[in-house]
Design a protein that fits this description.
- The chain is an alpha+beta fold.
- It has two domains: about 10-170 and about 330-350, no CATH class; about 195-295, Chitinase A, domain 3.
- Helices cover about 55% and strands about 10% of the residues.
- The protein has 13 helices and seven strands.
- A four-stranded antiparallel beta sheet has the order 4-3-6-5, sandwiched between helices.
- α3 (about 60-70) crosses α4 (about 80-110), α4 packs across α12 and α5 packs across α7 (about 150-170).
- The longest helix has about 35 residues, at about 305-335.
- It starts with 5 loop residues before the first helix and ends in a 7-residue tail after the last helix.
- The model is unreliable at about 5-10 and about 30-45 (pLDDT under 50).
């Protein structure tokens, strides 16, 4: 009787391991082999900026993340110095790396409650409705190298990630108590102070109409009609105002605070008493006639009014800390004992925000 073919058994085991590592699970060997691909000109966006568990983060993805980050921070790329640009690149990349790590663990571990597929489709449709020009939507998808189907898949993956996070941090989220809400209100309640608000209307003549160079004479003529009570403020606004949004409602601007209006306009509003018509007011935008119909003074909301907002804030902060803690744990696991996150600085340092 021939002996057991150990050599072929070992070959078979090795082949199974290679197949599992390289194709099925994208394990350590796959990750190692992928490390050289970041320097290649091939791939979306000119190469891979990083790889997480064998899954690439392309230069295009990094540049789109940089664009979104700058938009949220109200910053301009051209105004940033070299160090600030470097920080922007790496902060955007680390956000993407964290997302990839979370997704990798979600795929490996699974989730208990799966969100319905229809939810992703509804969100994609809602995004499409935000485009006033129907042709702009497919152009935007094409610029992001997406299709409608791939967008819905991406949205669904993000929803699966959120569900996995919720399940993983549930045990870390103690319910916010009434005592904690009250303590926050007592210490930080002043930050919730409601600023003064004004309810006013205006009649507006733009100073940027090249066919009407002398708007000063025009606004004075309208003002004379108002003072002489020849017509009501609402009628004059409907007939003469260049503000197409408010002229159908007599120039009514609704309620607003100092933060919502240009400084030169709000300065004129704050000088008026309720029911008083202004003289012609010149701002950077043009000429105005203004009337203040009502005013609310600054006040501190009561605890009852602020309670739900504070509870939501504390819950959000608690969740944010729990997510940070979870990501820190997963990142540590992603580096030990085998490294699963690889960076390609030569690609990262070339990244510019997407248009």
């Amino acid at each position: 009787m021939n002996g057991f073919p150990w050599r072929f058994a070992l070959y078979f085991v090795a082949a199974c391991y290679l197949f599992t590592d390289l194709y099925a699970c994208k394990g350590p060997l796959h990750a190692y082999l992928m490390t050289g691909r970041g320097s290649s000109p091939e791939g979306e966006g000119g190469g891979y900026a990083a790889e997480v568990y064998g899954r690439p983060i392309t230069r295009l993805e990094l540049e789109e993340s940089m664009r979104d980050q700058l938009w949220r921070r109200h910053e301009s790329w051209v105004a940033l110095g070299a160090e600030a640009r470097k920080q922007t690149r790496w902060l955007a990349l680390e956000t993407l790396v964290n997302d990839r790590i979370l997704r990798s663990f979600r795929i490996m571990n699974g989730i208990h409650q799966v969100p319905p597929l229809a939810a992703a489709k509804r969100e994609a449709e809602m995004m499409q409705r935000q485009f006033a020009d129907a042709a702009a939507y497919p152009q935007r998808l094409a610029a992001q190298q997406q299709t409608q189907a791939s967008l819905e898949t991406a949205i669904y993956d993000a929803q699966l990630d959120e569900q996995w996070i919720a399940e993983r941090i549930a045990h870390r989220l103690a319910e916010v108590t009434e005592q904690e809400v009250r303590a926050w209100y007592d210490e930080f309640g002043e930050s919730l102070r409601i600023p003064p608000a004004h309810h006013a209307a205006h009649l507006f003549l733009t100073r940027h109409d090249q066919t009407k160079p002398d708007r000063a004479a025009e606004i004075r003529a309208i003002h004379r009609q108002l003072i002489a009570k020849e017509k009501t403020f609402a009628a004059l606004a409907a007939a003469h105002s260049d503000d197409d949004r408010t002229k159908p409602v007599g120039g009514d601007l609704g309620w607003f605070t100092r933060e919502r209006m240009p400084a030169d306009f709000i300065a004129a509003v704050e000088k008026l008493t309720i029911g008083q018509f202004s003289d012609p007011v010149l701002t950077k935008l043009g000429w105005h006639l203004i009337i203040v119909m009502a005013r609310q003074e600054s006040r501190l909301p009561t605890f009852a009014e602020a309670r739900d907002e504070i509870a939501a804030l504390l819950t959000s902060q608690r969740r944010e800390e729990a997510v940070k803690s979870l990501i820190a744990e997963l990142r540590e696991r992603a580096q030990r004992p085998t490294k699963f996150v690889f960076y390609h600085p030569q690609i990262i340092d070339q990244a510019e925000p997407a248009p």
